[in-house]
Amino acid sequence: MAASDTERAQQQIDEIEALSSIYGDDWCVVDEDEKIYCIKISDCLDQPKWTLCLQVILPPGYPTAEPPIYQLNAPWLQGQDYTKLANSLEEIYVQNLGESILYLWVEKIREVLVEKAQSSDPEPDIKKTTEEVVEDDGDDFLLDYQPIQEDQIKMLNYMTPESQEDEELPPIHHGNPITDRRSTFQAHLAPVVTTRQVSR
């Protein structure tokens, strides 16, 4: 017998409570009503080199009838790396049809990050990462986690000549995420008056 909407809703509540208690501050509720959540995942606890944010939306049919809608946010995650990781997550879903899979996804991502840290892959280039964030508008990850955003700002201040240091960063306003055909979009707006503010 198929699970009822009430049973599925209870399964989602139980899974979210478990994840929240396991991952603590790394687990974030973006929108409780829309069931949008994100989690910061890194290769280690002390001084992480590789970090990624997994954002998920739980549709009404999850976990028994529908997969979670997800987005992987990391400025360094592009092309073949993105495809390979996305395929791994979808494979986990297929192997565990009808079951709660977010914990398995998080641990798979962590495993990939640990492998990356232990391999000969160079650490992400902070300067390049910052430029990509500006160009790609993929800064959901940086904005969800204030400490990381502050690190980026410190790094930008370090690269900025002293004459520009007193220029204030504009406030950034975040729109509500919109999901269309398994893709999630979110607008970010900031009033700028100089080209330096744009690049910062």
Describe the structure.
Residues 14-116 form the RWD domain. It comes from Nicator chloris. One of its GO terms (cellular component) is cytoplasm. Residues 162-186 are annotated as: Disordered. This is IMPCT protein. The protein has a domain at 27-118: Roll (Ubiquitin Conjugating Enzyme). The strands form three sheets. The protein has a four-stranded antiparallel sheet with strand order 1-2-3-4. It is built from seven helices and eight strands. Helix 2 runs antiparallel to helix 3. The chain is of the alpha+beta class and 200 residues long.
Question: What would a concise description of this structure say?
Answer:
The chain is built from 7 helices and 8 strands, in the order H-E-E-E-E-H-H-H-H-H-E-E-E-E-H. The protein is of the alpha+beta class and 200 residues long. The chain starts with a helix and ends with a helix.
Layout of helices and strands, plus pairs?
Elements: H1 5-23, E1 27-31, E2 36-42, E3 51-57, E4 69-73, H2 79-95, H3 102-118, H4 126-136, H5 140-144, H6 146-159, E5 173-174, E6 178-180, E7 183-185, E8 188-189, H7 195-199
Antiparallel strand pairs: 1-2, 2-3, 3-4, 5-8, 6-7
Protein name: IMPCT protein
GO biological process, one term: regulation of translational initiation
InterPro entries: Impact, RWD_dom, UBQ-conjugating_enzyme/RWD
Q: What key phrases describe this protein's structure?
A:
single chain; 200 residues; alpha+beta; Ubiquitin Conjugating Enzyme; four-stranded antiparallel β-sheet; two-stranded antiparallel sheet; 8 strands; 44% helix; Impact; RWD_dom; UBQ-conjugating_enzyme/RWD; IMPCT protein
